[in-house]
Amino acid sequence: MTAPEDQAQRPANPFTAFFQEVRDDLRHNNGGPAWTWQDAATFVFITVLMGIFYYYCRPGFFRGSLFNDTAQLLSLDRSDPWTGLLPYGWWALMSIIMRMLVPCLFIVFVLKDRVRDYGYRLIGTSSHGLIYLGLFVGMLPIVYGISYTKSFQSKYPFYDNAILGWEHFVSYQLLYGIQFLALEAFFRGFVIFALFKRFGYYSLLIMAIPYCMIHFGKPAAETFGAILAGIALGYLALKSRSFLYGALLHWGIGIAMDLFAIIQKGGFKS
Q: Which residues, including other chains, have CB under 8 Å from residue 31's CB and lie 6 or more apart?
């Protein structure tokens, strides 16, 4: 039976009571750290930015909504194989904007921090150079073995015309590398360093969830492997205070994946 004093404290309006309950829950946070508006803003910002990137910044969006107008504006013939690079140019450009520039603005104007404290520096990474090199060498035989699978060969490289010759392959890889730089800047730069201030090394596990999810649709081995890879790269980024070596490692593995897939499909023989 409800005590009289509890009845007196409970608002008569159920909606008012519900929102008061929400306010109290957030204030006490189940005995954990109190919420701050910066914490809430960071989580909302990360989530919204990932949604925007998924729907509007990837090659598929460009092909479906912008390809014809862009080709016409640049006076390009759609039958020209080089026009196939346009969606990846869009991907690279939007990666820089949405995964680097916009988060940097958030760091400066919302979090009131220095951008260099979110992994944008080289100092301190040299001591981990051999570790990154070891990871790269260790991954090569794994990638080569997976390259024999049909799911791998059907997925890579994303740019179909990369198989036409080295000039296509290299041009695509330059755009691909920009995308990797921005990817690492976002997940192993902005996300990991923003969360580390509140959650410590739990930030590695939090970051691994959305990082794994962006691999949905890729071969299962790559998707599940992204969990461990993301945590490892995140830890190294935190220790070295930089995501740049991780970007180089990620790009190097990406180049190897594309190259092995092309070789398996019989490309580059002439």
A: none
Element (H, E) at 140: helix 129-146
- What does pTM read for this prediction? 0.91
Closest among 184, 187, 191, 204 to 252, alpha carbons compared? 184
* Residue ranges covered by each domain of the chain: 35-264
> Which residue is listed with tokens 């196939």?
84
For residue 203, give both structure tokens.
Answer: 């930030």
pLDDT digits (tens, 9 = 90+) for 78-117: 889 999 999 999 999 999 999 999 999 999 999 999 999 9
pLDDT in tens, 155-203: 999 999 999 999 999 999 999 999 999 999 999 999 999 999 889 999 9
Evaluated on CA atoms 204, 210, 215, 219, the torsion sign reads positive
Whether residue 143 contacts residue 244, with contact meaning beta carbons closer than 8 Å, is answered with no
Q: Collect all residues with Cβ–Cβ distance below 8 Å to 256 and sequence separation of at least 6.
A: 139, 140, 143, 144
Q: How many whole angstroms separate alpha carbon 5 and alpha carbon 8?
A: 5
Type of residue found at 116:
R
